[in-house]
Input
Amino acid sequence: MSDPAPSPTVPAPMPVRRDLHFPFPPARITDWHGAGGHVTQFFNTLSLYFPEGEKFFIQSVRHYKSQITDPTLQQAVAGFIGQEAMHGREHRAFNALMDEAGLPADRIEQFTINRLKMAHKVFSPSMQLSMTIALEHLTAIMAADMLRKPEVLAGSHPDYARLWRWHALEETEHKAVAFDVWKTVMPPTLGSYLKRCWGLLQTSWFFWLFTAIFHVRMVHAAKPQQGHLVGYLRLAKFLFVKPAAWLSLAPAWFAYFKPGFHPWQHDNRAALVELEQLTADLANPALH
Ligand SMILES: [Fe+2]
Ligand SMILES: [Fe+2]
Output
């Protein structure tokens, strides 16, 4: 990673809830990404997790709210909850376009709802928080990659790209909040460390396995213009060669297993300056 090491004297950014609405041309929902229909469906599949996944994160963090006494962390938790709620709302609108286009979005979301309901019943609050910080790590490292490499969204429809950049920016802004809650409420023991690591292992295989399965369902329902051979080859290039949107996550994924890991050890706060321009662009009535 080329970003500078964090300065321990610089506090983490304070997440702020931004009540933004994103316009999309519905006709482009199956082909908005510059790399074609198969890559579009990769992002669309990820979007199907967000509304329910983010609700799960909010519940997991909220469970420990009474144990957080530090006013800065209390404020960060409020910002985190506000941001995830807005992400859920905007991705729900995005996902509705998929249903309207005949994609099996609703059925896939129902599967996620059922799995998360089960996780809520079966796992302890600390295991749910471990899963939350693991998934927050996954989203933060994907967000960092997107913000660092313009190629990840190159050639995409600007209205769609804007939603993904906003989400990536806010995921970056609040990337340490759930983790700091974990550090506050869990004892600094080997057991806690192992539970944190298990959270990432467990959620990662589940996340990528089901992303692959759902992606195939989405692609076949979308009937992309390009053939499947060309489409899957372009997706493979996108994920593993250039911009290597999946493969290049590996070093940051492994960093999580360091006993002294903290999300801001990868200090990419400089990217957050874009939030101001993005917010100003959305205020332009010509967009809506
Ligand atoms: Fe989010
Ligand atoms: Fe998040």
